[in-house]
Amino acid sequence: MAARKTPSKSNVSADELKKYYRDMLLIRRFEEKAGQLYGMGLIGGFCHLYIGQEAVVVGLEAAAEDGDKRITSYRDHGHMLACGMNPDGVMAELTGREGGYSKGKGGSMHMFSKEKHFYGGHGIVGAQVPLGAGLAFADKYLDNKRVTFTYFGDGAANQGQVYETFNMAALWKLPVIFVIENNQYAMGTAQRRSTSTPDLYTRGAAFGIPGEAVDGMDVLAVKEAGDKAVAHCRAGKGPYILEVKTYRYRGHSMSDPAKYRTREEVQKMREEKDAIEHVRDLLLGGKHATEDDLKAIDKEIKEIVNKSADFAKTSPEPALEELWTDIYA
Amino acid sequence: MATEILMPALSPTMEEGTLAKWLVKEGDTVSSGDIIAEIETDKATMEFEAVDEGTIGKILIAEGTEGVKVNTPIAVLLEDGESADDISTTAQPAPTAAPAQDAPQPAAAPAPAAVKPAAPTPDWPEGTPMKKQTVREALRDAMAEEMRRDETVYLMGEEVAEYQGAYKISQGLLDDFGSKRVIDTPITEHGFAGIAVGSAFGGLRPIVEFMTFNFAMQAIDHIINSAAKTLYMSGGQMGCPIVFRGPNGAAARVGAQHSQDYAAWYAHIPGLKVVQPYSASDAKGLLKSAIRDPNPVIFLENEILYGRSFDVPDVADYTVPFGKARIWREGTDVTLVSFGIGMQYALEAAEKLAEDGISAEVIDLRTLRPIDYDTVIGSVMKTNRCVTIEEGFPVASIGNHLSAVIMERAFDYLDAPVINCTGKDVPMPYAANLERHALITTDEVIAAVKQVTYR
């Protein structure tokens, strides 16, 4: 992976760096807690954790402005936390409670926040890609200068509808950033076994969409690439592709035995490339924060996460009448 | 020997057309491939080429003539050495051409002549001014009116803009509203349906035209998983106001992949609304309601009905609410329930049954989600017999569902089992005779009525 950048080389302040650390840590601790609640039987069904990939959303959210939109797949908890959605509401949705973002009717894969411009949470691999381009279509139609971050994985990158969308997004110059979160495994299938060419960032070439590969374990590199992509879209030049190379530490979902990769491979990534450790080193090494500063952040995050878990356990199940609401507007 | 040049069929559903312009005159010599005339079909203006070479001996149908039936001789082609005097008089006399402005209405299509009984439950008060309109014109007017009313309404689909609509439904809309709001797409139903749904999440009100609903199967994941379920999955935060419309069901002689009725498929899905109009007034009033509806609406049209003319209220803002059936004909002996093109068979059957002294009540459901159960049940309680009519496949049909509801709600009122008349349980064949048998027929409806009335 590319050499680590230092904060002095990038255009990021110490406060911003601390914020990235905090936001990534929130996602990691939240997801660890979600895994725990799943083990306790409080969360059911599918639950896809984002642990390992935190720098992707945190870096790109740092490039976003108010009113910009985001949409992603079912591995969506990190995206929601990074765009400022309330951890209580996210966790309570995971436990299927009234206080959840979808009143318990959506679950882990289906959450939305109009307020934070988060448009889901989509369970069908690749479906969010044209939907995201459609959000950008609406923005262009309404001439409101917003961009849409459309996240999908290396697995979804092989879906036909992705290329239908690339064509139309380029043809109509839609302000959409296609973020391919390449965590190297489409469920249990390694990229080399599913994908004929390794460089997903070149997949837009046939449609005239520029793309670049980004070190997704380096939040500063992600932010920098995000700034560039946002500027491109905001200038009316049409879509942009970011292939963000990242790694998921946990299984595809909670029920994944992960026989398709070695324990050593995962361990090596955690030890050598971890995005949170990286920022921690930058903060401490650059004397931008002390151990005590970081401990205080750790403590704050722990409290937020514990509070969300308490809320998710105590929020009541939805009233039975909710079965019959929200079918038609 | 002189050859008759016949009025060509230039589309699968064309029964007649307008001889818009002759590009040759009597005495001209033509070769194979020369364009000799412009013919306006129900879909477009087409150039008509000579097949054989020879001299135009006589033009039988003057340019500007409307309603020229397919296979009517329109001109006579002479071979070398023949003269116009050799032309035998077998050719039918030409209808006189009339100037465009006071041209007579084209004759109604021959075989399935629209039955016009008194309508006991029209959706307009007595004395409302009416105008004759085709279903095609009514649909276009509905879209134009709603686009004028709401800037966020736009039309997207294959050939909707510059081509003026594959079936001419969107004719003129590009000129009226511009390319920002009338948008030609590439042939990528899955992708553009998803983009349209996303744009509805983002605050717009898209009308998506599928060239036919057969192609919507490419897009059905977005229709069902993305459009229909999001309101529920978001706990009411985010809905999807969108209309998916286009021709549905069998056209004519286009084979299995292009001939299927999707009414039962979409009516199965909570979160969708499903509309299938028969008349032009319903096409207009229901499409306007669909565009205003905050939910995803499936709007199933029919290619054969596009050219059919009906009375449409000539009022400023005519809408028809969802979930309200229309009783086309009152009766006492049997209830016929149908929708869409099935209404043609129901109404024809009712007319013929009346001659046999059987009084049939004919109900047009108009919307399949919601369904107006009360009107059906009320009628069955009166007639004690019911036959359902639809073009779709028999298994899990709308008729099956209605039968179950009638059994639950009106069991004690039934004097005979409900019969479901449907399309046959086979992929649509191409051969003309097989296709006729695969579809529902008026005779089958009459036979079913005789069975339930024990005649």
Structure overview:
The complex is a heterodimer of chains A (329) and B (455). Chain A has helices at 14-39, 54-61, 77-82, 87-94, 128-142, 160-171, 191-194, 219-234, 263-273, 275-285, 291-314; strands at residues 69-72, 118-121, 148-153, 176-182, 185-186, 189-190, 211-215, 240-245. Chain A is α/β, with parallel strands linked by helices. Chain A has a single domain, classed as 3-Layer(aba) Sandwich (Rossmann fold). In chain A, a hairpin with a 2-residue loop joins strand 5 (185-186) and strand 6. The radius of gyration of chain A is 19 Å and the shape is globular. The mean pLDDT of chain A is 95. The N and C termini of chain B lie far apart (56 Å). Chain B has 3 domains: 3-85, OB fold (Dihydrolipoamide Acetyltransferase, E2P), CATH 2.40.50.100; 130-313, Thiamin diphosphate (ThDP)-binding fold, Pyr/PP domains (Rossmann fold, 3-Layer(aba) Sandwich), CATH 3.40.50.970; 326-452, Rossmann fold (3-Layer(aba) Sandwich). Helix content of chain B is 26%, strand content 23%. The longest helix of chain B is centred in the first third of the chain and has 15 residues, at 135-149. Chain B is globular and about 80 Å long. A 7-stranded mixed β-sheet of chain B has the order 11-10-12-13-15-14-20, sandwiched between helices. Chain B has a 5-stranded mixed β-sheet with strand order 17-19-18-21-22, with helices on both faces. The chains are: A alpha/beta (329), B alpha/beta (455). Chain A binds chain B through residues 69, 71, 100-106, 110-114, 119-124, 127, 129-139, 141-142, 160-161, 164-165, 167-168, 171, 325-329, and chain B through 152, 154, 180, 185-186, 188, 190-204, 221-222, 225-226, 230-239, 241, 270-271, 273, 294-295. Chain A: Heterodimer of an alpha and a beta chain.
